[in-house]
Amino acid sequence: MNELDSVVNAVQQTAHYVNMHLADHARTGAGTNPSGEDQIGADVWADSLFFDKLSSLDCVGAYASEEREDVVDCGDGYSVAIDPLDGSSNLASNNSVGTIIGVYDADLPASGRELVASMMVLYGPYTTMAVARDDSDTVQEFLLRDGFSERWGTFRIPEEAMVVGLAGKDSERSEEFNTLAKELEHDLKLRYGGATVADLAQVLEYGGLFGYPKTAVYPEGKLRVHFEAAPLAYLVEAGGGGSTDGTQSLLDVEPTGLHARTPTFLGNEELIERVETALTE
Ligand code: FDP
Question: Which has the least CB within 10 A, 70, 125, 129, 167?
């Protein structure tokens, strides 16, 4: 087993456990995260599970989480950045949530160009995990069931786009963005649930665009570079899709701090180009 295998393995094992016990933590409150958002018990619980597992690996030198103010030093090795329970506000209504992990070969802050692997777990009607790695040409998907990880397939984004999921209220988005959103929603089926991993999974399966733009409430966008935008861009680009913050690949965004945010668009190349054209005109 090489070093990346050991990270993948640790995430698989922890995700199994999270999947089985999520309900116990779905409706409990907690504090606020470093970005000032309400945490629920499951956010803090999942963070501590992933921390215990990942920080004990020899190849992990730093652990950073959306739920923690600072990077935790664990020795020498990769910096792991994680959103332990992405979309956790969907738990109370029993909708899908996920986990996102980026493995950076650099100290944080770092851009997505320093990523050597990224993983996305989807806790849906069944639990799957997609893995993109520098040492592999394919994005491998696993089915996590009964304590075992079964190869489930590889993915490439379909050429034809069918779905679109864009966050934010019309009243809080820019005029140029609303014009584009209207055009896209005229041609494509709406798919927006409010959990990035679950919404992105629709795009990866059916082709299309997921986006969280700048809004009046989130002038820099809502999603965080290290924990969400860059790892997901790494995965989507490895699967033949594209990403942008409006002007450049999300992998080129230089985060100004550990919890820096960015407008986030992921999906088919052609739609990514349309976003860039619409937002720079
Ligand atoms: P959540 O706050 O439930 O954790 O970044 C977190 C996130 O969910 C994303 O998973 C999701 O796409 C987005 O926020 C949802 O935000 P809105 O409720 O504003 O749509």
Answer: 125
Same domain for 14 and 150? yes
Ligand 1 pocket test, candidate residues 40, 83, 171, 212, most atoms within 8 A of CB = 212
Q: What is the pLDDT of residue 174?
A: 96
Atom of ligand 1 minimally distant from the CA of 212: 12
- Structural domain harbouring 266: 163-280
Long-range contacts of 125-134 (CB under 8 A, 24+ apart): 127/15, 127/16, 127/19, 128/152, 129/11, 129/12, 129/15, 130/155, 130/204, 130/235, 131/8, 132/234, 132/235, 132/238, 132/239, 133/4, 133/8, 134/4
Distance of CA 229 to the CA centre of its chain: 6
What would the two tokens of residue 256 be? 């100004």
- Both 27 and 144 in one domain: the answer is yes
Give the confidence band of 108 by pLDDT, cuts at 50, 70, 90: very high
C-alpha–C-alpha distance, residues 225 and 257, integer Å: 9
Protein residue with its CA nearest to atom 16 in ligand 1: 194
Residue 221 has pLDDT above 80, yes or no: yes
Residue 136 pLDDT exceeds 80: yes
Residue 103's pLDDT is 98
Is residue 87 within 6 Å of ligand 1 at its C-beta? yes
What pLDDT, in 10s, does the model give residues 181-207? 999 999 999 999 999 999 999 999 999
Ligand 1 atom with minimal separation from the 98 CA? 10
Q: In CATH, what number is assigned to the domain containing residue 192?
A: 3.40.190.80
Q: pTM of the prediction?
A: 0.97
